[in-house]
Amino acid sequence: MACRAVLELAAAEPMLHGRSKCCERMLVLDTAELSVRMPTMRIETVFLFDLDGTLVDSVYQHVLAWREALDEEGIDLSIWRIHRKIGMSGGLFTNQLLRETGVEINPERVDRLRRRHAEAFLRHAVEIRPLPGACDLMAALSGSGTRWAIATSGRMETVAPSLSALGVDPAKTFVVTRDQVKYAKPDPDLFLAAAERLGVPIETAVVIGDSIWDMLAARRCRALGVGLLSGGYGLEELERSGAARVYEDPADLLEHLDEVGGRR
Amino acid sequence: MACRAVLELAAAEPMLHGRSKCCERMLVLDTAELSVRMPTMRIETVFLFDLDGTLVDSVYQHVLAWREALDEEGIDLSIWRIHRKIGMSGGLFTNQLLRETGVEINPERVDRLRRRHAEAFLRHAVEIRPLPGACDLMAALSGSGTRWAIATSGRMETVAPSLSALGVDPAKTFVVTRDQVKYAKPDPDLFLAAAERLGVPIETAVVIGDSIWDMLAARRCRALGVGLLSGGYGLEELERSGAARVYEDPADLLEHLDEVGGRR
Predict the structure, then answer these.
(1) What is the pLDDT of residues B206-264, one digit of tens each?
(2) CATH 3.40.50.1000 region(s) of chain A?
(3) Taking CB atoms and an 8 Å cutoff, what residues of chain A touch B101?
(4) Nearest to B236 among A59, A71, A237 (CB)
């Protein structure tokens, strides 16, 4: 209860003081003061969306594009293992794969894999479509004055076709890509950068993602993780990695938006 | 305990009497008789393998081949939903999809989808490889005199490239395909037919599969389901659908074969 009150204070006056200041204040609040102040304290939720598997139906094309890139490097890896790494930073992904397969890691090889994956993925870009409800969800949030942003581990070169499929103009929407941060997921840098762009504390953010890396990154920065099954992970995998709720896809989330901060 | 003894009796003398006969005999066994007979009673386990995602790394190609076939019919379906139906009978799969999407079902459409899926899949057939450990596992079983068979929901037209990748000659190995039974998974007909071909009661069979449909079919015929993650399902999904144990892939199963009946 105390934590929730702290969060709500922080959310209500995000620009006035940091969290630690707010915590100090909490310690001296007595019950009477709380009961008077509570009704005005609310988290004004913002939504930070992952892109692939969350807003666009592109995970399986990414998986097979990585398989193609790895094949060209003579690296044999089962496809399900690639699937389970989609959503994490491409650099971390290749480093982990190379480490796991015992293949020599060098920057040239990592860069070559990245380029080959991008080339293979872009050949499939025309097949990429929004997931059911994705456009309606973004429109509903904008319509109710709820702010949102997109934060993706992809680079702008592979992200552009997906944004285009969604009808999202990066000049008019907050979109944070891997190009703009030091580390991508499961580091929380992308979500921190997105919250900063929205001018809100990260603790007011709900992170919507389809992969366990989204959920882990959300926990690491104290955002609230909400999972979607539309990237092909199982329900329990997402729950175990920290999802507070799991929905099927954006359409299902839109129907239950009130459960995770959609009320204004 | 009684059930186990019944099973072991049935397995020890599979050709002498059916299960019900065996059960009748069990009822009149007294404790003294049991203690004398028990050491000689064992289940001589046979292994019934699913093919796609279990022995060969072909699930993701099947998923995108179905997506392509559905696209050509103007049916829009998220890819993860296709993934979760892979492994079940192709006819049941298309019927369910058409019902779920509200698209009209007719035999011509179902047949067209089947043909288009097969065409799209066969274009990718050259990419299909055995999963790690698949060939070693089959060789180890054969080497120790443990009998095994393959039972797949696929038709011979799409199964042939996978068998070829595995080096399995259907003339020398028991392979049951969708062409040979009335209903494919999650009906247990394929596994029942495979056990019959091996000349053993289905209760002595361990079914190895990567999908929840394998596990459901195994439970329906009282075989023991063992799951593999190599088709891209989550661990918990397989456990919840009845897997007694779950391993990563054939290599991991081979390392732990003693746990599920590999000892002779």
Answers:
(1) 999 999 999 999 999 999 999 999 999 999 999 999 999 999 999 999 999 999 988 87
(2) 46-56+129-260
(3) none
(4) A237
Q: How far apart are CA B84 and CA A57, in angstroms?
A: 15
Of A63, A236, A249, the CB nearest to B78: A249
Q: Look up the CATH number of domain B60-126.
A: 1.10.150.240
Task: Say whether domain A46-56+129-260 belongs to CATH 3.40.640.10.
Answer: no
Nearest-angstrom CA–CA distance, B47 and A178: 47
Whole-model pTM: value is: 0.82
ipTM of the complex: 0.81
pLDDT digits (tens, 9 = 90+) for A67-111: 999 999 999 999 999 999 998 888 888 888 888 888 887 889 889
Residue of B60, B124, B233 to mutate for A, most A C-beta atoms under 10 A: B60
| Other CB atoms within 10 Å distance of the CB of residue A249 | 24
**B59 CB near a chain A CB, below 8 Å?**
yes
* A185 has a chain B CB within 8 A of its CB: no
Q: Do A76 and B229 touch (CB under 8 A)?
A: no
Interface size, chain A vs chain B, as Cβ–Cβ contacts under 8 Å: 71
Is the omega angle on the peptide bond into residue B186 within 30 degrees of 0, that is, cis? yes
For chain B, strand residue ranges (E) read: 46-49, 148-151, 175-176, 205-209, 224-228, 245-247
